[in-house]
Amino acid sequence: MPAKDIAVIVGSLRKDAFSRRLAKALQALSPAGLTLEIVEIGQLALYNQDLETSPPAEWIAFRERIKRADGVVFVTPEYNRSMTGALKNALDVGSRPYGKNNWDNKPGLVVSCSPGNMGAFGANHHLRQSLVFLNVLPLQQPEAYISGVDKIVSESGEVANDKTREFLTKIMQAYEGWANLLAKR
After folding, report:
1. How far is CA 155 from CA 111, 177, 183, in A?
2. What is the pLDDT of residues 104-116, one digit of tens each?
3. What is the DSSP string of 92-112?
4. How many CA atoms lie within 13 A of 108 on its CB side?
5. pLDDT tens-digit map of 3-46
6. φ, ψ at 48 (rounded to 5°)
7. Shortest CA distance to 15 belongs to which of 38, 36, 47?
């Protein structure tokens, strides 16, 4: 069986974002049954239904990439107790025009992170709330709130401590099992 094609959406646009570092770590720790590819969202124009008569090329390419994916991993920081505007925009672009939701029925994984102690708990749950409407089927357990990310994941995605590396590996193994289970339906 070929590896599942998993789109990774990084919620922060910052070049050296902690969420991007964490996404690289998840790529490295992912089981052989998953191929993770970061799908960029910074080039997406803000969603405006008026543009649907002639959608931007970036919207078309993004929608096709999400539609083609076997699943989606979201790695998000927290901005004001919620997901980032860029991530919300990507959700909107990928779910439109009405009736053409490219996120539909995808196995999902939500991993949130922050340098603080709460691990972006608010962003994680706010994102999950949107995923319910989009019919993304997120893994429920283990939950992934990564606090102190600035100290445990390097710029290249290397994880500094064994306990976190084991936890992230466990998450990716659980996600692989979830994606495989949903594929059998």
Report:
1. 18, 29, 34
2. 999 999 999 999 9
3. HHHT-STT--TTTT-EEEEEE
4. 25
5. 999 999 999 999 999 999 999 999 999 999 999 999 999 999 99
6. -145, 115
7. 38
47-99 pLDDT per residue, tens: 999 999 999 999 999 999 999 999 999 999 999 999 999 999 999 999 999 99
Contact 77, 48 (CB under 8 A): no
Give the span between the Cα atoms of 178 and 164, in whole angstroms: 21
Kindly state which CATH superfamily the domain 4-183 is placed in: Flavodoxin domain (3.40.50.360)
CA distance 178 to 109: 9
Instruction: Indicate the domain borders of the chain.
Output: 4-183
Determine contact, residues 115/149, Cβ cutoff 8 Å. yes
